[in-house]
Amino acid sequence: MTLASELADRLRPAIDDERVLAAISSIPRELFVPESERKRAYENVALPIACGQTISQPLVVARMLELLRLCPDDVVLDVGTGSGYHAALLALLADRVWTIERHRELSAQAQRAIAQLGIDNIEFLVGDGWNGAPAHAPFDAINVAAATGDEVPASLELQLADGGRLVAPVGTAEQHLIVTRRTGDRFERIRMEPVRFVPLVHDEDEDERWA
Hints:
The chain is of the alpha/beta class. Helices cover 26% and strands 28% of the residues. It has an eight-stranded mixed β-sheet. It has a two-stranded antiparallel ribbon with strand order 1-2. Helix 1 runs antiparallel to helix 2 and helix 2 (18-26) crosses helix 4. The longest helix is centred in the middle third of the chain and has 13 residues, at 104-116.
């Protein structure tokens, strides 16, 4: 049994979606953490990466994936590429993934890690994740891997397809996962469990650009 499979088994009591657990068992998390942290790659904790960011706790990643209720033919937006671990998992669960990161260094590192796995259904963008990727919308699902402040950006919710789902950590002093589901012009938002994420930085003057 691989270390990734052992991690998936440890998460199984809290995660019901077997597709999510299978994806986690398939992705070597050590590829997405700095060399200095690789001995801790399979602990159920967040770990530091470059640019003052983190790779999220595996349980939280799995829970966000589960809440998205992904289908194999979904087109997904991943806001906050970070290490690329979340994007790699999304790529196993959906048809196509667009992932956006404001730090060019992180985007490049994520591309290198994912290339090692032979995953080829991810498109990388560098830019302001707050604005999403409107040129490639609508999305069946949007994953936001950084805290959005007091509310989910309307710019992201409006990029959901009809029936689309968005999961984001929302809050300042206290954060919770919020699930948004779009039905026509209506947006239903449900508050889930507490979490802790780095903030989603909004650069108003930064345009989306290719990595």
